[in-house]
Amino acid sequence: MQTELSRQLGAEHAIFGFTPFPAVAAALTRAGGFGVLGAVRYGAADDLKRDLDWLEAHTDGLPYGLDVVMPAQKVEGVTEDEIEAMIPEEHRQYVRDILAAHDVPELPEGERSGWRITGWMESVARSQLDVAFDYPVKLLANALGSPPPDVVERAHRGGIPVAALAGSPRHAERHKEAGIDIVVAQGYEAGGHTGEIASMVLTPEVVRAVDPLPVLCAGGIGSGEQLAAALALGAQGAWLGSVWLTTTEADLGSRALTRKLLAAGPGDTVRSRALTGKPARLLRTAWTDAWEAGEGRPGPLPMPLQGLLVAEANSRIQRWEVEPLLGTPVGQIVGSMDSERSVQAVVDDLTRGFDRALARLNAIADRH
């Protein structure tokens, strides 16, 4: 299941897996895919260095990548404390009210909030890159548009191709103009930050818009048949994220959350600004419901204020496994994630399904 792009990057299969978990990224790379570690959760560069050291020791010299979150426009001289000061008291009180309504305990004394979206900050993302460029990273992806031009140039000097996610053909064209090497067409069905165009429509339009750049299809892919459809639409591979959440290598830190994902159907997600301030597909919970527009509700703040506002609340919800509020970014493919399997088992199922799809198409072609 190779394409020109997967061959260029040294992967046996055109399966690119975004994950916040080093163990998942390493397992995917060893299984013949291409593991991409998400860096947004790393507030300290030393923590990222620790996990990149671990990846190096567990990928057998095979390729892997890194996904960062960097705005195209530089924002310098603004500290996290200064940004936190912009959060209105009305919103802070609203968060307190939600937590109180569900009897969510405080964090134990001395335990700091471990869930903070700081990777979006210019200074944090650049410190991550200073670490990453010391490793044999084979792909740098940016989840928030094209990275700044100097970052693209620095990656290219090191022989590292740069990928960027796009939710519309117009976004994809801007990536091409910015010197991006690979465009990830992320459809409406995908988990995390998404646009409003479904993958079946978006992928071929992006392929046409950025030709001859390679395109990866993201959103709604959890089987080999769906992967075959992505290639039929012109993609050079699939960018998968949600399917790894219920693998045995994933470390969600909550058995309750794993159970919720395994029980969820394809209609149990919602595109919401409740987590980061930008529209993101999440598991529908009492938390996402509380942030939907309505009388007496202040509504989510823009990014990055919302992420900082809800950081401690998310840590408390996860720490105490408050099930009505407990959720995560996940795509509509969650409905088919009904069992815990190893990463290798997921890859095996993907390749078998891909072969089945090809056999069906070949049989149709033979009849004509």
Automatic annotation (TrEMBL):
It comes from the Bacteria. Pfam families: NMO. Signal peptide: none annotated. The keyword Acyltransferase does not apply. Keywords: Flavoprotein, FMN, Monooxygenase, Oxidoreductase. GO terms for molecular function: monooxygenase activity. This is Nitronate monooxygenase. The lineage of its organism: Bacteria, Bacillati, Actinomycetota, Actinomycetes, Kitasatosporales.
